[in-house]
Amino acid sequence: MVTGVVYSTFCLMAKLFTSLGLGAIVSLAEYFFVLAGGLVLHAAVTYSAMLKVFSGLSPFVFLRKMEDAIMFAFSTASSNATIPVSMETTTRRMGADNKIASFTIPLGATINMDGTAMMQGVATIFIAQAFNVDLTMMDYLTVILTATLASIGTAGVPGVGLVMLAMVLKQVGLPLEGIALIMGVDRLLDMIRTAVNITGDCAVTCIVAKSEGALDENRFYDMHAADEDEKIIFKPSAQR
Ligand code: ASP
Question: Domain with 51 in it: what CATH number?
Fold first, then answer.
């Protein structure tokens, strides 16, 4: 079944690119690198600046402790599946109070999808250029608004951002077939944007916890916090 889908997607893409020419592959590569670069920059710069300005916490410590959650989000491409790991990271490794994290993390995993909004914006411009459609200033503002709304409506599971892109395309009168152009590279971009989405949730959790006096800073700066929790003891309990 999966092999069938892979073959049929490959055949559809091969047909598309033979009719569009090699230039289409180059623009697709450009789309991929622009979006991937933007996403990495957003996670590293915007969240770090937010964390520093609003809470005074160290972005380096934060990003170092995010490693596990980022890897998990990257491999599952699902914000919702990453909720338990984000909860563990923010409470046990970063010292945020459970009463803050248990509210902000599930809420963020449901509605806070900056990575998805970025993808929808960049993808809309890419599709407009691929179909030679000139977007006006008003169209750009519509794209910003609808991409933000569509990302809020996107479920935290793999690939839904691409489905919600249809809403943005329709709003500015672009053909929905454009989605097929980016489908082939979307899985990898989905993995990256999911990592960005959950990094935002965890950054905001730390900021809110700090502002509420519910963040244990000693734990935040302890690079070995919760290390013991990670160790798995393989002996049966009777032998311990
Ligand atoms: N996979 C993304 C997430 O779970 C949603 C998407 O953009 O498709 O955050």
Answer: 1.10.3860.10
